[in-house]
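Subject: two folds for Thursday's group meeting

Dear M.,

Sorry for the delay on this. The cluster queue was jammed most of the week, so I only got both jobs back this morning. I'm pasting them in the order they finished. Each block is the input sequence followed by the predicted structure tokens. Could you check whether the formatting survives your parser before we put anything on slides? The first protein is the one we discussed after the seminar.
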Amino acid sequence: MVRVALVLSLLLIYTPLMGEDAYEKNCVHCHKKLSSSLQNMFMRYLSTYSGENNLKAGLKRYLKEPSRDTSVMQDMFLDRYGIKKPTKLNEAELDRIIDIYWEKYKVFGKLE
């Protein structure tokens, strides 16, 4: 009985952590420390690439091969925080995260 209670207690404690999606674990965690929010960055990507497919392709390219030339951020931001390291996520994870990012911040279909 004690073992069952212990297992249930551990499940209640760790389930929220296991349910944390890939976007939260791989993006939000680090971006909390930056002066520009993920939503602001999304708007910069959207103004640069102006559409879902182009935005997703541009973001994916940057995450796989980050450089000053492929970043949408201002030079002052890049000088302060630098260029990120290339992602270690596989293609499926990267696509899933970019889809989550798109759904979270897209403006299309949200304006009436």
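Second protein, same layout:
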Amino acid sequence: MMLVVGLGNPGKEYELSRHNTGRIILEHIAKGNDFSEWKNDMKLKSLRAKGELGSEKVDFLLPETFMNNSGNAVSQLIDNPKKLKNLIVVYDDIDLPLGSLKISFNRSSGGHNGVESIIKKVKSREFVRIRVGIAVSTPNGKLKKPKGEEAVLKFLLGNFKEDELKEIKKISKKIQEAIIILSSEGKEKAMSLYN
């Protein structure tokens, strides 16, 4: 069974923030596929829902520990190298245009604190990530990224506009397909189709 982790922050105020892209997408997929209700797993300090995508059983996890401690929940379920093969982490990427996705494996965190926390806690970079673009781009496709640490933080914690949320919901269909391919045919096949 694949463990799919949607990164974000708990609480109403972050619900629609760009940094919650991973959570938003998994909530959307679960809702559209008759998953179990989200249950609060006290031990993992996470919300969990189980269901099937295609014919693949999947376990969705939304850590409730705030982004920088996402690894605390994940490491309790991924406690040996064999289990790493079944881990997929979905999160926002400011270096990709809004509504795009990229699948990567065995890479650095790229400065993403949630991914960094998971790498530290599972003591490995060898897991699949689905990076979801959140950056605004100009009509000719050039990314308009905020400059400076403060501006970046403000952008990440700022809420999606309504039309941006539509893009995120649209890309969640593709991410659902990618999760099915990752579970049934492996990362090489998924990367060749989606990257």
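Two things I noticed about the second structure. The chain has seven helices and eight strands. Residues 2-194 form a domain with the Rossmann fold fold (CATH 3.40.50.1470).

Cheers,
T.
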